[in-house]
Amino acid sequence: MKTFGDAAGDDTSSTRYRVLAAIRDEGSLSRAELARTTGLAASTITALIKSLTAEGLLLEADEATEAPGRTGPRSRELSINPGLGAVAGIDFGFRTVRVSICDLGAREIAFREGRLVEQYSSEEGLRIARGLFDDALAAAALSASDILAAGVALPGPIDSVRQRVIGSAVLPGWSEATAESMSTAFGVSSLIENDANLAALGEHAFGAGRGAKDSLTIKFHSGIGAGLIIENRLVVGSGSGEIGHFPVSEHGAVCRCGKRGCLDTFASIPALLEAAGPAGSIDLRTLLGLLADGDPRARRVVSDAAELVGDAASRACLLFAPERVIVVGAMSASEEAVIEPMTRALQRGLIPDTIAPPPVVRGSLAERSTVMGAIALALTASGWLSSSRR
After folding, report:
1. What family, per the record (predicted)?
2. How confident is the model at residue 168 (pLDDT cuts 50, 70, 90)?
3. Which residues pair with 29 in a beta bridge?
4. pLDDT beyond 90 at 21
5. Rounded to an integer, what distance in angstroms lies between the CA atom of residue 103 and that of residue 82?
6. On the CB side of 73, how many CA atoms lie within 13 Å of its CA?
7. Are the C-beta atoms of residues 232 and 213 closer than 8 Å to each other?
8. SS3 75
9. For residues 189 and 371, what is the distance between their CA atoms, to the nearest angstrom?
10. Which of 255, 258, 285, 325 has a CB 3.0–4.6 Å from the CB of 262, allowing a cystine?
11. Read out DSSP for 95-160?
């Protein structure tokens, strides 16, 4: 079992990461393209490439390629050495577990997905996830010893410093889960983090958050969660991002956390299904179909909930003024019923002519935002991304 520092040693200088990240994002780059992308001087690029290729971190193509429409000397493409190993992302959802295996350039090698029963135990969840993990490794022609690190997403409060689950009402059987227990279960050095936080990290590293130093990601799903990126770092702590427990009404339903009238009791998928039709008559697929067909009741139920989520998001925006708000999760698909009402509510909650309303956009990774955040966490742990958490 490899440890977190095996991939890139102890040198975490920002210039090395800028070079590695640029090549990772593009797949391959010439030296000239690398200089333009990173803004580094040609002499700095030359020295870094010499060091990184000598360490075996980068490969330089034997054959030079000619860029279309250009004249002059041909360039040799640089790429990350795929033989150095891989990382894993494991996303435990409310009813689904996803496993992704990626190379060190964050390119997916294998993916597996499985269904889980409601309120599944840690033993059952880990049994299914380990089977999917083994299947993915086999599909990628890898073994657990090839995996440098794994990021594991869990839907509940996480103590990110101590790397353990805080007594969670979301998955009651997981209260003893730790990074160490995940490492034992999968045979790979692992880190754990809240699923909404990792959705924010995934969109920031690979999706709709790229290019924004500060962003707020809202996970509009079985529960309402949030992840904050400030100065390109994920903000973590004991139970950070639990926006679903913002109070909406002291006369509302009792939440699973024990409080009354939390946002989750009005806007989570279970609350929407209950409001959209007689108990048990509508499932998520049906609700999404009704939205697509323009059903007035479904649209009103969802848009009212989206306004509540947008109002909660506006409070976060008043505190740290993100450049954009990103919406992920099953309910993010509807522009008219979700994105537009959220935008209106967010704008109402801000101070006019003082804070510019950030755009509200859908995440670009669809259902993969959280598992790709777990990949980003694993890349950080193995030394292939600069520190992504604060």
Report:
1. Belongs to the ROK (NagC/XylR) family.
2. low
3. 78
4. no
5. 6
6. 6
7. yes
8. strand
9. 17
10. 255
11. SEEEEEEEETTS-EEEEEEEE--TT--HHHHHHHHHHHHHHHHHHTT--GGGEEEEEEEESS-EET
Spacing of C-alpha 66 from chain mean position: 36
Of the CA atoms within 13 Å of residue 337, those in its CB half-sphere come to: 25
pLDDT tens-digit series, residues 354-388: 878 999 999 999 999 999 999 999 998 887 766 55
Q: CA angle 99-165-369, nearest 5°? A: 35
Amino acid at 192: I
Which domains are assigned to the chain?
Answer: 10-63+73-80 (1.10.10.10), 86-200+369-382 (3.30.420.40), 210-363 (3.30.420.40)
Ramachandran angles phi, psi of 23, nearest 5°: -70, -40
DSSP E strands in 138-246: the ranges are: 147-154, 158-159, 164-165, 190-194, 215-220, 224-230, 233-234
pLDDT digits (tens, 9 = 90+) for 214-228: 999 999 999 999 999
Name the 3-class secondary structure at 86.
Answer: strand
Residue 96: CB atoms within 10 A of its CB come to: 13
Q: How far apart are CA 240 and CA 258, in angstroms?
A: 18
CB atoms within 10 A of CB 190: 28
Over residues 229-236, the mean pLDDT reads 91
Adjacency order of strands within the sheet including 215-220? 233-234, 224-230, 215-220, 324-328, 360-362
Lookup: tokens for 241: 């991002």
**How many Cα neighbours within 13 Å face the side chain of 199?**
32
74-84 residues labelled b (16+ CB within 10 A) or e (exposed): ebebbbbbeeb
